[in-house]
Amino acid sequence: MYGGLKGKPPRRDITLEEVALHKTQEDAWTVIRGQVYNLTPYMKYHPGGAKILFAVMGKDGTKMFDRYHPWVNIDFLLSGCLVGRLAAPA
């Protein structure tokens, strides 16, 4: 789909600390509803522009996503960008 990434069932749990390492325009991960997504290939397609996504790079973007897109099926929309699932806090 986006940038050749293919969505696969989560293969591993990813900590929020690991997500925090991916916070640049060239390597942008976020968490939405417990799933970790690589937004990098999607940014050019985002209807609101890439700049708004900077606010959720490297962190949990669920609140922001739900504020603006509560009706969007994120699992379908970003299936090709799925990296894994967020690990439960230790």
TrEMBL record:
GO MF terms held by the record: cytochrome-b5 reductase activity, acting on NAD(P)H; heme binding; metal ion binding
Keyword terms of this UniProt record: Heme, Iron, Metal-binding
InterPro entries registered for this protein in UniProt: Cyt_B5-like_heme/steroid-bd, Cyt_B5-like_heme/steroid_sf, Cyt_B5_heme-BS, Cytochrome_b5/Flavoprotein_Rdt
Gene3D superfamilies registered for this protein in UniProt: Cytochrome b5-like heme/steroid binding domain
One Pfam family named in its UniProt record: Cyt-b5
Keyword Transit peptide: no
Domain of life: Eukaryota
GO cellular component, one term: cytoplasm
The Cytochrome b5 heme-binding domain, residue ranges: 11-87
Family to which this protein belongs: Belongs to the cytochrome b5 family.
Protein name: Cytochrome b5 heme-binding domain-containing protein
